[in-house]
Amino acid sequence: MNEQLQIVEIGDGPLRARLVNRGASVAALTHDEIETPLVLGYDDPAAYLTDAEFMGAIVGRVANRIEDAEVELDGARHRLVPNEGPTILHGGPDGTWAQLWTLEAASETEARFTLTLADGHMGFPGELRIEALYACSGETLSMSLTASTDRATFCNLASHIYYARSPDARLMVPADTYQPVTNGIPDGDPETVAGTRFDYRTPSPIASPIDHNLCLSRHRAPCREIAVLDEPKYRLAIASTEAGLQIYDGGHLDLPGGIGGRHYRAGDGLALEPQAWVDAPRRAWADQVILQPGETYAQETRIIVTPR
């Protein structure tokens, strides 16, 4: 195994998490009273070194898509590095998800990772210093993401965990609006979910295909419940401070080497990614992602698992 790859397990039971420093990723999540894995991951940790599906990783410095891979800030234009046709996705081909983070400290219940992205990395202005603190105790996995910069920049981090799902899974998200998209880029302003397949205000089967952002609030808010994945044998709730929740059904998954030797395919996982709204740097909601020197980006997200 690559000597730079580090693995740490945290949790005092019944919930336990395995983390790897490539992407500061959640590689496994298990509960003593639930027989099946709660997330998708790789059997061989070395597979994370070449993973291109953002498996369990922290993605950024700007999660999701930016149209035409170009942004403007304080009157200056910045050409970014595209990695999805003309679009930049999840911070580019060398974003936070592709980096070997530094494992600064670990204990039975906590692990702290840090990463510094240089000024100009992937075309973005400003040196960005990021910290990811994971804590796992009881039936809750918490992640605290913080960042600071020496120059005005954009910051929008997201946890890209693929949650395992069964055909009987139902999803609840208390969002009144969503972002219609073409090729992942918003068509305009958010629209009501009423009468659409994106209405998850009551628990509903997951409608595929879906790779859309549901708008929870205009700005970041105190940590509150933003999603519930109801499975026959457990309830998985996500609470977060974030203004949006990107839902991706893993429609392009075709990955051998999964946990327990599984070959993951479309429908095996569901990414629920707390983050800002899509294409924020180029839109009227850019204030969601602008980070100035002296400010601290701060996201809190909690995953609570309750067996039935």
Automatic annotation (TrEMBL):
- Name the domain of life: Bacteria
Could you tell me the keywords of this UniProt record? Carbohydrate metabolism, Isomerase
Q: Which Pfam families match?
A: Aldose_epim (PF01263)
Write out the similarity annotation: Belongs to the aldose epimerase family.
Q: Which GO terms describe its cellular component?
A: cytoplasm
What is the protein name given in its UniProt record? Aldose 1-epimerase
InterPro entries per UniProt: Aldose_1/G6P_1-epimerase (IPR008183), Gal_mutarotase_sf_dom (IPR011013), Galactose_mutarotase-like (IPR047215), GH-type_carb-bd (IPR014718)
Q: What GO molecular functions are on record for this protein?
A: aldose 1-epimerase activity; carbohydrate binding
Any one biological process term the GO annotation gives: galactose catabolic process via UDP-galactose, Leloir pathway
